[in-house]
Amino acid sequence: MTALWNLSGAAPDVVVDVAAIDDAIGRGRKDMRTPLNLESLAQDGLVNAVGDGRWALTAQGIAWIVQDRELSDR
């Protein structure tokens, strides 16, 4: 969520490639871990799959991050 926040400029509906998200969280192209899956966040309405490995925060996702930061005093 933080990577999407940063890469989208904290704006909803800004499309971000999953490869950029991987890079932002320290996962290289040859990383052998399970591919990044944002489906659970999509099911919660926090992100939208845009297709072709691209994602965007929703307005609800932005609000969730803002609330989380307020609650954790960041």
What does this structure look like?
The protein is an alpha+beta fold. It is built from four helices and three strands, in the order H-E-H-H-E-E-H. It has helices at residues 2-7, 18-24, 39-43, 59-71; strands at residues 16-17, 47-51, 54-57. The longest helix has 13 residues, at 59-71. A hairpin with a 2-residue loop joins strand 2 and strand 3. The mean pLDDT is 90. The protein has a three-stranded antiparallel sheet with strand order 1-3-2.
- Class by alpha and beta content: alpha+beta
Order of helices and strands: HEHHEEH
- Give me the number of helical elements: 4
Alpha carbon gyration radius = 12 Å
Shape call: globular
Identify the notable features of this structure and list them briefly.
globular, alpha+beta, about 70 residues, 3 strands, about 40% helix
Secondary structure elements and pairings:
Layout: H1 2-7, E1 16-17, H2 18-24, H3 39-43, E2 47-51, E3 54-57, H4 59-71
Antiparallel strand pairs: 1-3, 2-3
